[in-house]
Amino acid sequence: MNRESEFIRGMMKYVVLAAALVVIVGVLAIIPRREDKRDNWMVEVRVIEKVISEMDGEQVYLIRTEDKDGREAIYEINEKALNERLEVDGVFQEIKEEKYYKFKMADRDEYDSHYPVVCGAVSLIEGFSE
Fold first, then answer.
1. Which site among 9, 69, 106, 107 is 20 to 30 Å from 24 CA-CA?
2. pTM for the complete prediction?
């Protein structure tokens, strides 16, 4: 009798553990994941010109670029869009004219800027990808 009760107790322990595991997995599947609500996109560009301009009484760091289809665009480097470890001056100095870069962009309205904004660090690339 003692052996049977130990066997049943052991089986119940595994059943309870399996049920707990199923509940945990179910809860994790239901909980919404924290996602960045900002609408970002990646661009690959060749930097044509870098300019520090004055708009609304403050300095604005701008880069004029060209994509692989030859379309030109102006992007802003904004303190609000960079992560905490990066500074506008540092990112602006890192970017060189006539070089190719890949970086994440955000709409100008999201960061209260004048142009679409560079988000985070920029990556130097050899040229446009296929």
1. 9
2. 0.66
Beta bridge partners of 58: 55
Contact 39, 117 (CB under 8 A): no
Determine the structural domain holding residue 18 and report its residue range: 1-35
Q: Is the domain of 66 the same as that of 2?
A: no
Rounded Cα distance between 78 and 115, Å, is 10
Rounded Cα distance between 115 and 109, Å, is 8
Question: Can you list the residues of the chain whose pLDDT is less than 50?
Answer: none
Check if the beta carbon of residue 115 is closer than 8 Å to that of residue 64. no
Residue whose C-alpha is closest to residue 127's, from 5, 12, 45, 26: 45
Tokens representing residue 80 in the block: 């609000």
Q: Residue 55 is part of a domain; what is its CATH number?
A: 2.40.50.140
The residues, any chain, with a CB within 8 Å of residue 76's CB and separated by 6 or more, are 60, 61, 62, 108, 113, 114, 115, 116, 117, 118
Same domain, 25 and 46: no
Structure tokens at 37: 């609500």
Q: What tokens appear for 82 in the block? A: 């960079």
From the DSSP assignment, how many helices (H) and strands (E) are in the chain?
2, 5
